[in-house]
Specification:
By secondary structure, the protein is α+β, with helices and mostly antiparallel strands. The chain has helices at about 1-30, 80-95, 120-125, 140-145, 155-160, 180-195, 195-205, 220-225, 245, 255-265, 270-280, 345-355; strands at about 40-45, 50-60, 65, 75, 215, 250, 285, 290-295, 300, 305-315, 315-325, 330-335. It has a 9-stranded antiparallel sheet, with helices on both faces. It has a 3-stranded antiparallel sheet with strand order 4-6-5. β7 and β8 (about 290-295) form a beta hairpin.
């Protein structure tokens, strides 16, 4: 009799879980209606040890669920900054006498720094350096190569702008989102290690964390795994040159889910990786009661819980990743659209809604 009841209870709970899962998919599908037509989106959700992988095509008349391709790679834009932050923390762990509070002007670097520039590594990594999103001399790249604006923005141009930069009284106390600040971090990493950013990405991310479908820039082998819109056999992929560390990463749903799982459970990692990932979660500056910034991660508080997140966007690609540590849950959204692509802030809202749902 007890065995019979146990079997009935098992099937009841299984049915309930299936119904809840189906309801969750319906809610997600409904939320995608705001996205541009022609969008392809891959979604990965990790929650309490279980992974769901979904994919949808946003058509004119309907939203069609399609087979998920979790190993296809997408440009991830500024989510690259999260991975760059991990690399920075890992390198600092290995270096003696250098930490987030170290001033760049006191380090032996290959690019000039104004004597009134008091910036520390922390200021670059948490967007409190007073640097602009992109500097004024970036405009020449937009004029000469509008389809690939970073192409000519090399170390020489970065250094030329940065050597005249003087810090203001608001250094470290006011946030100003800066892609350029991460460009400086990339140059610093190369000087500290003697390796290019691509080599560091491969060592610490692709190999170090086993994220084999992730890379900085796009290789020929990577192109074969890249998700492309059916209407565009050949996309014009941005070449970010010396700015790859701020937005030139490529990754897949499976790889980014793996990264979020490391954040949620660090027990299998070595001490360097544990230290790096833990440091990234720490709040470094408060924006308001609901928002703050860590190092790499943006932080949002919902019902008293800390949500780590970041979004990204490049030509035709939009992405989002979020982690709810308390609820042991993470979500990854990677999308491609061959049109104007107004999906950036919409994808962020959808992602935050998913991470907050039951």
């Amino acid at each position: 009799m007890k065995q019979h009841i146990s079997i009935l209870l098992y099937f009841f709970l299984a049915s309930l879980c299936h119904k809840t899962h189906a309801q969750g998919e319906t809610e997600i599908s409904k939320s995608l209606e705001v996205l541009e037509k022609g969008t392809h989106i891959e979604i990965g959700i990790f929650h309490n040890g279980e992974i769901s992988r979904l994919a949808y095509e946003i058509e004119k008349e309907r939203i069609e669920k399609v087979e998920a391709s979790p190993d296809k790679i997408f440009e991830i834009g500024s989510i690259t900054k999260v991975l760059t932050s991990y690399i920075v923390h890992s390198v600092l762990f290995e270096k003696q006498g250098i930490d987030l509070q170290s001033k760049l002007k006191d380090m032996e670097l290959s690019f000039p720094i104004h004597h009134k520039n008091e910036s520390r590594i922390l200021h670059l990594i948490n967007h409190t350096s007073n640097l602009p999103k992109m500097p004024s001399n970036y405009i020449w790249g937009m004029i000469k190569s509008p389809a690939n604006p970073y192409l000519i923005y090399d170390k020489k141009r970065i250094s030329k702008y940065y050597k005249s930069h003087k810090t203001k009284h608001s250094l470290g106390t006011a946030t100003k989102y800066s892609n350029f600040g991460y460009g400086i971090l990339g140059l610093m990493l190369t000087d500290l290690t003697g390796k290019t950013y691509r080599e560091l990405f491969e060592a610490y991310i692709s190999n170090g964390l086993g994220m084999k479908n992730s890379q900085s820039g796009i290789t020929e082998s990577g192109k074969s795994k890249l998700y492309r819109s059916p209407e565009q056999v050949e996309d014009c992929l941005w070449q970010l040159n010396q700015m790859e560390c701020e937005g030139g990463g490529y990754s897949s749903v499976n790889d980014l889910l793996k990264f979020t799982q490391y954040v949620l459970d660090k027990s299998q990692l070595d001490q360097k990786s544990k230290t790096a990932l833990s440091a990234m979660e720490n709040e470094t500056i408060k924006i308001n009661e609901e928002r703050s910034i860590g190092t790499g991660w943006m932080i949002q508080y919902q019902d008293g819980r800390k949500i780590l997140f970041h979004d990204g966007g490049s030509k035709g690609y939009k992405s989002f990743v979020a982690i709810d540590i308390e609820r042991n849950k993470s979500v990854v959204l990677l999308s491609k659209n061959c049109g104007l692509n107004k999906n950036s802030y919409l994808l962020k809202k959808i992602g935050l809604d998913i991470i907050s749902s039951n």
